[in-house]
Amino acid sequence: MKRIALAEDDVLLREGMATLLESAGYDVVCRAGDAAELLDFLRGAEPEMIVVDIRMPPTCTTEGLDAARAIREDHPKAGILVLSAHVEVDQAMELLATGRRIGYLLKQRVASVDGFIEAIERVRGGDSVVDPVLVSELFAARRREDPLALLSPREREVLALMAEGRSNAGIAHRLWISEGTVEKHVRSIMARLRLPDTGDDHRRVLAVIAFLESR
After folding, report:
1. Domain residues of the chain, as ranges?
2. What tens digit of pLDDT does each residue of 161-206 get?
3. Is the pLDDT of residue 145 over 60?
4. Which of 15, 125, 144, 173 matches a 20 to 30 Å C-alpha distance to 51?
């Protein structure tokens, strides 16, 4: 069974998420009320996934984000999904820059059961997931010296979906175009952003970071 740990100080939300995850086939091995309790549990456990709220006691500032950093260092193979009640751009960028198996989701998404479980599964499978509201906010707040200015509108759409963690096949399905067309757009994006010719996965991460920094 898929093992998952939860850290959320709102008891009702925590228990609600646990119920949803158990019904989806997960074994909820930890239901922590704060980051310290979560980290204490993880000293002797290796769950596949961790869901953690950014703001938790005692100060309700960045306890969850700090825990996510520590978890990424101590449990590099675990997927981490961070929840936030508000769009916090700087914190999201810092978190997503740590690599794959990472996600940032607004708490309101939990109400969409299918969307929440899909995000969990994608992060667990190795993707990065970015809440669409955050993607929209980043687009709206781009600086005039936007490094993405050379991209076409369609290439921007493709890059935005890449930032949400979508595969080429997923992007093709969303935009109603062929996977081959998506691949051409991705190659064009890499060329226009002048990204180094490294592994495809690494270049995709660099492209997403360029997108997230363009605000």
Report:
1. 2-143, 153-214
2. 888 888 899 899 999 999 999 999 988 888 887 776 665 656 777 7
3. no
4. 173
Return the CATH architecture of domain 2-143: 3-Layer(aba) Sandwich (3.40)
Query: Are 96 and 209 contacting, i.e. CB atoms less than 8 angstroms apart?
Result: yes
For the beta carbon of residue 73, count every other beta carbon within 10 angstroms: 9
Sheet containing 128-130: order of strands = 26-32, 2-7, 49-53, 79-84, 102-106, 128-130
Considering the entire predicted model, what is its pTM?
Answer: 0.65
Cis peptide before 58 (omega within 30 of 0): yes
Classify domain 153-214 by CATH number. Answer: 1.10.10.10
Residue 73 CA from chain centroid, whole number: 17
26: DSSP letter? E
CA 37, CA 23: separation in Å to the nearest integer?
24
Same fold, 2-143 and 153-214: no
**How is residue 107 annotated by DSSP?**
G
Could you give the CA distance from residue 145 to residue 15 in angstroms, rounded to a whole number? 45
